[in-house]
Write a structure and sequence with these properties.
Radius of gyration: 26 Å
Family: Belongs to the binding-protein-dependent transport system permease family. FecCD subfamily.
Pfam families: FecCD (PF01032)
Main location: membrane
Strand content: under 5%
Organism: Mesorhizobium robiniae
Number of helices: 28
Protein name: Iron complex transport system permease protein
Oligomer: single chain
Helix content: over 70%
Amino acid sequence: MLVALVGVPAVLAAYLTAAQLLRLLPADMWWQSLGATDFADPRQLLYRHAFLPRLAISLLAGAALGLTGTLLQQVLRNPLAEPTTIGTNAGATVALTIATLYAPWMLEQGREWVALAGGALSTLAVLALAQGRSFSPVAIIISGLVVSLTCSSASALLMAANREYSEELFIWQSGSLIQNGDAVVLGFAPWLAVAGIAAFLLLRPLRLLDLSDEGAESLGTNPVVTRLAGMTVAVALTSMVVAAVGVISFVALAAPALVRLAGARTLRQRMIWAPLTGAALLWLTDRLVQVVPFTSEIPAGVATAFLGAPLLFLLLPKLRTSPDRDGAMLSSMHRRSGWAHLLAGLVVMALLLCAALVVGRGTAGWHVASAAELADLLPFRAPRIAVAVSAGMMLGVAGTLMQRMTGNPMAAPEVLGVSGGASLGILLLFVATTDVSRPAMIAAGLVGALASLAMISQTGRRQPIANDRLLLSGIAVATMASAFSAVMLASGDPRLDTLIGWLSGSTYRATAADATVAAVTAIALLAIVPLTIRWLDILPLGEAASRALGLSLFRVRIILLVLIAVPTTIATLVIGPLSFVGLMAPHLARMLGFQRALPPLFASAILGGAMLVSADWAGRMLIFPWQIPAGLLAALVGGPYFMVLMWKGRQ
């Protein structure tokens, strides 16, 4: 099985490689062109300085990722650990992006050191957040998700602020194996050799981590030192890969998982076969993306994400989990009756809306619009403000509904992939037709959101502890949506500017029609959700208690899923998928003391609307005359906020 696992993709990749190479250069010239390249022959130049280096880096990077995944999964005792899911890739990427744009002198000694610093910091942040739950698999994955989303938001902001470099940055970040000479290969190979030697020197102490910490110590191994050494090797390898070719998603997850399923039981076997499998998989993937009939080449890192997301679904049943105590750790400190405070919240929101309408910056500095000026500004500012407040209210209510329905305080449309599913449906519509109307986008987004909710709900019901699987299923759906978004952005579509703005959560192109649709949906949602109060008070008690109290769980869940999917789709349509409002607003409502079902729903709506209105106004003002998308700014605030919540919970 192990030989077939490596051999089949390797043979197929070799066939594709030979076929592509024969179209480039006759076989009798291969050896001659390798040793004595004729610089006057473009075919030989491409063969020697583009084709062969690309082949070599695909094999080396694949092997490095296979070894990295094996080390991380052994060190963390987590079958889902890999550089993408624990945040290392995102940290290395944002560090290199910052250095490239603002401190290129830092790259003079090599990109590897910058990537290593960023990857190490993000990994340390993930481990610090997960420490309070004894580094449980789910805690690490969720912490990695939050850190990754925060870093990704920062990268997206940098790309939005430097649009002249955005296409090149995007292609690199998506994992491009395109090479121009031997420099990258020759620089990467020694790092891989040293890391491989270090990993095999750690084989015995790493193998003892299969025992309990007490058992490992009794056999003369310090588990803390062993984990630190293993993590150091893995993070260093990951950083080298990111520095060399960008982010290659999920090969580090797939290779160890596949060799384990194929019969590699011991750590030694996995450390030998996983790098070979990773090399074969990435080699084959790189060959396939070059033959797929697409307007432009799909980055290899995007292609591997399509492999990783379904694999994550397949591996979920094998994940050992522990009871989730996050509900306790994120609970509020005190209770309030709520209604008087809701009135105060409405007053604050009204003031924010007025400020967003009349206060702004111009060429002469800060300015408060007069009544006459406001008449001219209203057609431009009012739709944006209406879209922002309506989308924020819908996401806040949807987040509250999800947390009540699942009993999971980390549930949110963005985290569980509902926004990703809606965006995936809309992107598929972009692919299917060139004439995209608003009704068609709403229908496509609604189908995607409902499909996403159906997938994650099925995964949760199949397992006795649904919360963990629910979150990880959401990660898989969000990953597929992100990968497809990347394909669209790499396609050269003439609507690229619109797509980038929408994916960032922008209100730039908000129209009066958008504002009307969003406002009507938000008002309808707020009118309907009070009818579900009894369900929302009972559902957190658990399935048995809910059934005993007369709830028809199937019917209740279907209704709640529709109430979540429709507003999430409209919010995603008008402001894009990138936002943490659906997660932040319910938590802020609980922290302010709103406990029973009805007051938190309205409090979340007020808080969500206020957050997105504030983010939209701040996005217009902070770097005037340029603008920061509202959803992107909200995500940049939401990621650190969620980290603070998790940090408090671990204490």
